[in-house]
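Example with several molecule types.
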Amino acid sequence: MKSQQKFVGSHAQRGAALLIAIFALLLVSVVAIALIVSSGTDSALASNYRTSTSAYYAAIAGIEEARGRLLPSNPNYLSLPASPMPLTQVVYIINPTGGETVAPNDTANPATYPDKEYKQEFGVDVSGRTVSIYSSVSPVGGLPPASYKWVRISAVTEQSLGDPQVPGSYVDVNGDNIMDTVTPLFYDPANAPTPGLITTFAPPATASQALEITSYAVLPNGSQSMAQYVVRPLVVFPGLTSQTFPAALTLAGNNVFYDGPGTTGFYIRGQDPGVVPDPGRSDQCPGGTSAMPAIGYTNNNTGTDTSFNTIKTNATPVANYQGPPINPGSPPTSPPTAATAPTSISYVSDQMNQNWLTPKGLDAVVQNITNGADVVLTGPTTPGSFPSGMSASSPMTIVVNGDLDMNGWHNTGYGLLLVTGTLHYDPDATWEGLVLVIGQGNFVSTRGGSGGIDGAVFIAKTRDASGNLLASLGASSFSQTGPGSNVGRGINYNSCLARAAEGPITYKVIAFKEILLAN
Amino acid sequence: MPHARGFTILELMIAMAIFMVICGAMFGLLQLSQQKYSSETQLSGAFQETRLAIDQIVRDFSVSGYPAVSMFSKIPTDSSQYALVPVAWDPNYAVTQCLVGTAGGGTCQTPGDFDLIVETDLGSGVSWVRYQLIGTTLYRAVVPKTAGGDPVSATSLASVKVPFLTNVMNNVMNTSSAGLLTQINATYPSMFPGGAPQPIFKYTCNAAAGPQPCPLAGSDAVPGNIRDVDINLIVMTRSPDAQTQILKLVQLSGRGHRVNPSQ
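Resulting structure tokens for the full complex:
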């Protein structure tokens, strides 16, 4: 009984301790919770920021996939359904993850990431357009795909360039103060006063269509972003009114130098093989219609410039330098005026884009080609470093920053070869496409062989020996003086091969913006 | 039933004393960790604000120059419909481009070490977006571009300038807080080499010899040739470390690349 009483007393004391303990625990808990809550806010802030940036870069990733796949040289080349793309055609690349459905053209279904933006831009619901859908290609196996849902490729109009969130806004490309909702936009490098977009259904030969690439990214947590490029294909050509080269061999600059071997087997021909089928030529070009000079030069002031006289003296025998009129022409006795019809040796500045006649303009050309090249090599180098896989159906763009020595290369190259140093050509090699020697502007060949260049050659000296940009074009030089009669076939103009090498070698961005999404 | 034995006053006092000592130690520790916590929170806050600021500048710069002149076949007579060049300049805006320099070099007032105005369409027409460090506050101002208007005066109105990032110390030696430099140098000896201001913006220009820092690009160092901007922000926390009273700073850098063509 005693012990029971004692137990009861001790029990009562424990009750007080319990109350105190609970109170203390409560106090500590409040502090702890306060700490946790405040650090939780911080984490939320950081994660909002991170997802907004992630969504933005996911959208850019989508754009870049589309931009890359527009190139014919891309293994996953995405051939557009029509060229030019009419406004009624829309292409999507979709990138669903985890079994979800992505159907941007199903604008009635909010669960499939509908493209509501299209109507904001074009005023028409995308479900009313002809839509082609392709699947995204993951760049590297095993990597998780980027979180963009779809990328849209479409034509561009004045209306579509406007700010989607501002009703009635547009970009007045042609300055007529009227919002054009139907005419596609083209990029014309020959537009005056500055190269730019033009509105037309009948583009000039120098223009190519501008395309809009719009990408929409949604992260698993719902954070979204949309970005848009307007791109144009970069096609490399100096022609003023067409996508051509002005001569089989163009020597741009002042006091240019030309020296040929003076033997019977070496020709420079300006005619397209399609015009006069020539059984003596290995290259063919069905449908080719160009008749170009054999050698073009760009300074016809004989009072101060030696270009014409040097070429005329050294371009022998004259029958081997063929340009319009179609068959063996003989060089003119005096420099032709601008109005004179082109002959085998012609002044070609009038047929050229002026950007190709200044060191600064040509430097931009070199930059553009370098940025879009399949491979950029640092000279001095040899064709041993060329990529494999070049073929007539898969021409490549190769840039050599420095000298290139082709000695002993018994192969055929296809595409565009740009050399900024001296090109030591060996006629054992054949090149089908374009050879540009811009920089030091020096083409030298002292070797023998039976190969040749089919396409076009362009040479310009834009830099001095130490690499500084010149104020005006210097004396570019072509010299092919091999031993005996075996010095190669020479240069044959071929518009088919030239066009294949001209590109598009890349799609250049002419506009980039983020699109504000109406949430 | 014997009387239950209680504690003596001595026992109680000893117990209380032990309890007080333990409590005191605990509260001391708690206060220490609270101070540490608030300092670290401020530091990570400064870090985060700086990151946000850099990200915003990078994104504004990457869309700069929209729409470019090359988007038109006929350049609009109303110059507020296009971006003349991606980076607006002063003096002689729209007349003659100045030369970009650093540390007082060049002829540009803006773009400068602490001042950058980009011209672009952020979704509601072409605007001037200006980042400018005044004292230790980096301001952001967005105003619609007006034909014939001046980007500097348009973005200088107090009503459009929004404090974007505070306690930016890049140019602290030329502000009323110059006295802080000695303390900063004591803690971060390599942050301000030679006690010189650290530019927030450093520019890379497209030049004849390829991209190079604008101050080396000679006559090519004009705002229209700016292709990249390196951003370097030094930001101090709102208050010094609560324990040691040492100034806490974060230094972050980023790089913006223009995607639109310059013309």
